[in-house]
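Deliverable D4.2, example record:
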Amino acid sequence: DDAGRLYVDEELLVDSWLLQPPATHASQPVHLTPGEHTFRVEYFQGQMAASVRLSWSSKSIPKEPVPVCAR
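Output generated by the structure prediction step:
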């Protein structure tokens, strides 16, 4: 909850940098070519408990948490 940003390969895809209750935000569809990609999540917690989740999906993969090391 509160604020967060998501970058993939240094491109800002989700920018929700404002105080807010827990929420789900999604980017527009992104085409990832084969190979390695950099994912960066920035977030801050104003008050109460902190939480952040990063999930992905595709036509063949239902929404699931992104693994720490995805290959």
